[in-house]
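Morning. Coffee machine broken again, so started the prediction first thing and wrote up yesterday's gels while waiting. Chain of 232 residues, entered below exactly as on the submission form.
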Amino acid sequence: MDVILIPGFWLDASSWNEVTPELEAAGHRVHAVTLPGLESADAPRAGIGLEDHIAAVVELLDGLDGPVAILGHSGGGAVAQGVVDRRPDRVARLVFVDAAPIADGDCVNDELPVVGDEVPLPDWSVFEAADLVDLDDALRDRFRSRALPHPAAAASDPLRLHDERRHDVPTTVVCCEFPSSQVHEWIAAGVPFVRELAAHRDVAYVDLPTGHWPQFTRPAELGRVLADALAS
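Came back before lunch.
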């Protein structure tokens, strides 16, 4: 199967490099994405919004034959969600890696510090302790050395959803910083930020206990989890 991997904020396609071998060993054709505005440190980011990111992945999807799996990490989950909303009949499985679908009209994160047209990778003190589990000093240095500023509009633009068939696409949620049991409790309690996830009709949960960036902290395990999800 063709598998599209969408990175989260501050990352490009290379962030999946240590994850893809497990998927390729399972026979999948991997297409890791570098989203518009993240091609380089000095790439133009003005005017690049969430719809531009969605459109770029839709264009990639339209160039592939047959069903495709879409995987999104963190903020890349909203991009994956937008793609599925535009092409629900083309997606065999949607996978969120330490992410969950957001509702129509919500944004990914409009609280991150913005500098001009971009969101640079903030100081580690901005993040919750759960985000940083297993991300030791060496991994933090590695992450920061390759981090790219994210287009500010892509973080704050509202996601627009139109096709209710997105709720029928088989979905997997890989839970890292919060266990799946916590997610189930949030859904049962009607917590607003999981209301879109609650509307999905076919959802599998997989626990991979680590911080928010498993592609750095547990890449081989993440690759196996993803391969197993696609096999289902």
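The first helix runs from residue 20 to 25. Going to sketch it on the whiteboard this afternoon.
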